[in-house]
Structure formats: C-alpha cells, structure tokens
Amino acid sequence: GPVSLNFAKDYIESSLKDETTGTYVKLDNVSLEWPNNKGPILLSLDNVKLFEKDNPNPSASIRKSGLSVSYRFLLLGKIRPETQILEEPSVTMVRKDGDIDIISPEVEVA
Fold first, then answer.
1. What is the share, in percent, of the chain residues with pLDDT greater than 90?
2. Where are the beta strands (DSSP E) in the chain?
3. Close Cβ partners of 88 (under 8 Å, ≥ 6 residues apart)
4. Global model pTM greater than 0.90
C-alpha cells in the first residue's frame, strides 16, 4: 500500500513557495505508492490548496493530485515527472480591466 511521506510535508510545501510573489501551497497528506512494480512510482498529494500573499482564501484547490515519477531516475536521485493527475480541481479566473485575476473558489463573482 501507500507509504506516508507526511514527515516531508513541510519540506515539500516550502519548496513550492514562491518568495517573489508570496504564493504558497498547503497539503493535507503526502504519500508514495508503486501500484505496478514495473511502472512509475506515484507521489500522491491530498487536498492541495494554492494561496496568494495576504489572502486567507485559496485561489485554487485540488482534492487529489498524483504525480508519477520514473523509477529509474529516482534511483539516480533525480525526479523525472511522467504524468500529472488532478482530481476535482477548482480555480476561478476573472477578467478585470484587461487583466486576468485568479480568485478564491469561495468568493462570489458579481
């Protein structure tokens, strides 16, 4: 079955933070599984939420995200993504004054 990687959750979240824009990610659960011993390894992320600086509401959320990585490259200490799987993604984009803004899914658009 899946192996929990929650011990590395803080490290993964910090590696996904953009210091320039203040955009950051929060994860509920991180696990690793190898469903087919010959195929790619799957990194599973549960309840992924993307936040923008100074906004407590997520601008995007994904119930479950899976990233398959090459087993051969992992043995060499490299992560080579092969497939990205997104389950129930939610993002709201609004065009305003010629710009496109991403807003929280919880915010009503007037």
1. 13
2. 3-4, 24-26, 29-33, 41-51, 60-69, 81-96, 99-103
3. 62, 63, 64
4. no
